[in-house]
TrEMBL record:
Pfam families: PFK (PF00365). The active site is at D162 (proton acceptor). This is ATP-dependent 6-phosphofructokinase. Its main location: cytoplasm. InterPro entries: 6-Pfructokinase_euk, ATP_PFK, Phosphofructokinase_CS, Phosphofructokinase_dom, PKF_sf. Gene3D superfamilies: 3.40.50.450, Phosphofructokinase domain (3.40.50.460). It is found in: Cytoplasm. Keywords: Allosteric enzyme, ATP-binding, Cytoplasm, Glycolysis, Kinase, Magnesium, Metal-binding, Nucleotide-binding, Transferase. Beta-D-fructose 2,6-bisphosphate binds at residues 472, 530-534, 568, 575-577, 663, 669-672, 764. GO terms for cellular component: 6-phosphofructokinase complex; mitochondrion. Its EC number is 2.7.1.11. Substrate binds at S160, I161, D162, R197, M204, G205, R206, E261, R289, H295, V296, Q297, R298.
């Protein structure tokens, strides 16, 4: 299309995908195209990555409309194609690309790709003035076009499964690839167990060990090889053999070793699966197989995290590019501490390159320091847990702490991961972890406190539900006095509670009861875990990602059915108590047309009318075209007394007057489960270790309890009169805390503050909702109008 035919004042923005495809790229393109249209600009897709730019013409630089990207949220790969294009690496190729963009009338370009693609994009932008000048000087463009297109604005979104881009915490596709890897390793475990075999699993990551490390934690692999941190000793063979032999001796029937594609030893020699295989089979005499996961890792639909990340980043990319001036440095859309941010593209690219340089210079400390803080923390955690069986319970010394672990509330993905990680980490530090089975009622009725053995815990990282059992009874419901007696009997020095709102209430009850019971004067910490994600003091509760993915898979299936039937909408009823978190995130991840949440009050008749009207119109306009079905997500507690999902579906059908029909679909407790997602597994481990560190820190100076105990004894013996000051109790307040996730940081806040200041106790909700902005974006991307 020629620019002269267009309105000169309407901007044209193009999007392309480049490098290795990554799940979530389609969602990114969908969000970009629709946001461009919503902003009144023209949307274009460049087909086949930089190859399409070099080839040019309307076949490769295509104008596209709203419908073009329909249904893309749930599709893997990239529908607009990608390539590794050698011509673009040459100036000649970029000159042609420049001409093609001008011919197509493109003002700005958004590139979704990995470090290579964004390096190319950065170079293209910096070279643009000289490229366009050359086109003018060689009479390939007019001076009018030269003036109009003198500046090209570029923006990057990072799509790569490798998670190897500096300045962003996650790249689009990385968590989906991690999901594929964990699923594959879970499968491999079963066959490995049957034959008592060892498996060497190669995962992708040419220059980055993120996938290998995270998969190592999420599947509790025996050993991992990553490029950033080769074994410090000269012999990785000895180190790996020692660990694998010990794990076997302690009762493990399987051995899983994960090798990143780019694994090297400390002399920069590549370590291959064959090298590892030789050691395991020749030296350790293990029946060993190699599995190279290859491109399976890039396949399939994106996990919820990637759909949401790529959608939010797509919206931000369009905002950034439309706000850009010729002077603005090209932005890269990143995610930092769970917030979508803009970073200077050039700096991010340079920093990324410096990791590779540091590795090449054998400066592994520098390479590690250039990765984000979480990477280092995860690696330390992996190593600590991995060596936990060095200290078996019989060796636990007096210095070790007795740490109680309890699950409270509904089961949530990651609960087992947390219990597993607390226990194994305690073993590695010489503490005695004691699992309290079946909540507080289990404790008082059956004295169900057991030390879990290392062998018993094998495989827990990958298990759904709660292996130690959980229920909703709070400490006071079970009986505070009885609970205290049990705490005293088992000499708990610290407690980790894993659960949702009931767990928060229980922790507050225990902390309040400290004035009456010395047994509760120990450090106690809550790891929030509930699919509702309604615990105050944290942005994230374990289990909510697992639930979101279960719900998303369910919605994808339902939507497929609706799309096949053509004129159908489904009303999906979503759990979450008074929290609309799950409903809102699922509506963004699945492209639901409408969602109703308790936070917005009762469903208003006016809004309902408008929603029905819009649904009717869009079904009529679709005229039975393919892939047209709609989802309505209703949180159970949205207008609970008036609307259940069946009634809502009936009303929709009646009001549609033949334009479509609606049916209710209730996933129910499916949402609680299945296998825990890799996010819940790895976060479970991170939270667990932080929680134990908290107990260790406060136990060290837990003088108060001992002082009070001896003062009380003296009083009993008639030596003194004992009157306790409030100060003594106040000094303990900080030692009963909620471990919250805020951005990528973990933060402890006293349960007293959270309970008394931050909680809406009637609704069982935090007073502050941190995700409301997502609702507007979800609406905008499906064209839902609000009354
Ligand atoms: N230095 C460069 N100059 C110009 N173009 C480049 C440069 N590096 C890469 N590109 C372009 O970007 C394309 C993709 O780069 P690359 O193959 O490194 O993948 P990537 O974007 O890093 O993605 P991933 O690593 O996730 O597969 C290249 O084929 C090339 O067209
Ligand atoms: O699909 P290709 O071109 O073989 O590339 C494979 C590479 O792409 C990635 O998947 C993404 O960079 C790497 O992990 C892997 O080394
Ligand atoms: Mg790359």
């Amino acid at each position: 299309m020629n620019i002269n035919k267009k309105e000169m004042n309407q901007k044209a923005v193009a999007v392309m995908t480049s490098g290795g495809d990554a799940p979530g790229m389609n969602a990114n393109v969908r969000a970009i195209v629709r946001t461009i249209i919503n902003k009144g600009a023209r949307a274009y897709c460049v087909m086949e990555g930089y190859e399409g730019l070099v080839k040019g013409g309307p076949e490769y630089i295509k104008e596209c409309n709203w419908e073009f990207v329909r249904g893309w949220l749930s599709e893997g790969g990239t529908n607009i194609g990608t390539a590794r294009c050698m011509e673009f690496k040459q100036r000649e190729g970029r000159l042609t690309a420049c001409k093609n963009l001008i011919d197509a009338g493109i003002d700005a370009l958004i590139v979704c790709g990995g470090d290579g693609s964004l390096t190319g994009a950065d170079l293209f932008r910096s070279e643009w003035p000289s490229l366009i000048k050359e086109l003018l000087d060689t009479n390939q463009i007019t001076s009018e076009l030269y003036e109009r297109y003198k500046h090209l604005n570029i923006c990057g979104t990072v799509g790569s499964i490798d998670n190897d881009m500096s300045t962003t915490d996650a790249t689009i596709g990385a968590y989906s690839a991690l999901d594929r890897i964990c699923t594959a390793i879970d499968y491999i475990e079963a066959t490995a167990y049957s034959h008592s075999r060892a498996f060497v699993v190669e995962v992708m990551g040419r220059n980055c060990g993120w996938l290998a490390l995270m998969a190592g934690i999420a599947t509790s692999a025996d050993y991992i090889f990553i490029p950033e941190k080769p074994a410090q000793t000269n012999s990785w063979e000895d180190q790996m053999s020692e660990i694998v032999t010990r794990h076997r001796a302690n009762g493990k029937r399987t051995t899983i070793v994960i090798v990143a594609e780019g694994a090297i030893d400390n002399n920069l020699n590549p370590i291959t699966c064959d090298d590892v295989h030789k050691v395991l089979s020749n030296r350790l005499k293990l029946d060993t197989r190699i599995t190279i996961l290859g491109h399976v890792q890039r396949g399939g639909t994106a996990v919820a995290y990637d759909r949401i990340l790529s959608t939010l980043q797509g919206v931000e990319a369009v905002n950034a590019i439309l706000e850009s001036t010729p002077e603005t440095p090209s932005p890269l859309i990143a995610v930092n501490e769970n917030k979508i941010t803009r970073k200077p593209l050039m700096e991010s690219v340079a920093l990324t390159k410096s990791v590779a340089d540091a590795i090449a210079a054998k400066d592994f400390d520098k390479a590690m320091s250039l990765r984000d803080v979480e990477f280092k923390e995860h690696l330390n955690n992996f190593m600590a847990i991995n060596s936990s069986d060095k200290v078996l319970p019989k060796e636990i010394t007096d210095k070790g702490l007795n740490i109680g672990i309890i699950n409270i509330g509904a089961p949530a993905g990651g609960m087992n991961s947390a219990v597993y990680s607390i226990t194994t980490y305690c073993m590695s530090q010489g503490h005695n972890a004691l699992a309290i089975h079946n909540g507080f009622t289990g404790l008082v009725r059956h004295d169900s406190v057991h030390a879990l053995s290392w062998k018993q815990l094998i495989g827990w990282q990958s298990k759904g539900g709660s292996e130690i059992g959980t229920n909703r009874h709070t400490a006071s419901e079970a009986g505070i006095e009885e609970v205290a007696a049990m705490f005293q009997k088992h000499k708990f020095d610290g407690l980790v509670i894993i659960g949702g709102f009931e767990a928060l209430v229980s922790l507050q009850e225990l902390q309040e009861a400290r004035k009456d019971y010395l047994a509760f004067r120990i450090p106690m910490v809550l790891i929030p875990a509930t699919l509702s994600n309604n615990v105050p003091g944290t942005e994230y509760s374990l289990g909510s990602d697992t639930a979101l993915n279960s719900l998303m898979q369910y919605c994808d299936i339902i939507k497929q059915s609706a799309s096949s039937t053509r004129a159908r909408a489904f009303v999906v009823e979503v759990q979450g108590g008074n929290s609309g978190y799950l409903t809102t995130l699922a509506s963004l991840a699945c492209g639901a047309q409408i969602s109703y949440v308790p936070e917005e009050g009762n469903i208003s008749i006016l809004q309902l009318e408008k929603d029905i009207q819009n649904l009717k119109e869009s079904f009529k306009n679709a005229k039975g075209r393919d892939r047209f079905g709609k989802l309505v997500l209703k949180a159970t507690n949205a207008s609970l007394k008036t609307w259940d999902s069946h009634t809502l579906a009936k009303v929709l059908t009646e009001e549609a007057k033949g334009a479509f029909d609606a049916k209710a679909a209730i996933p129910g407790h499916v949402q609680q489960g299945g296998l825990p997602s890799p996010i819940d597994r790895t976060r479970g481990t991170r939270l667990a270790i932080k929680a134990v560190n908290f107990l260790e820190e406060f136990s060290k100076n837990n003088a108060s309890k001992n002082e009070v105990a001896s003062a009380l004894l003296d009083a009993k013996l008639g030596k003194t009169e004992y009157i306790e000051s409030n100060d003594a109790l106040d000094s303990l307040i900080e030692t009963a805390a909620v471990l919250g996730t805020q951005g990528s940081h973990l933060k402890f806040t006293s349960v007293k503050k959270i309970y008394e200041t931050d909680s809406d106790l009637i609704k069982r909700m935090p007073k502050d909702i941190h995700w409301t902005h997502i609702r507007n974006i979800a609406d905008e991307l499906v064209g839902r109008e609000r009354v």
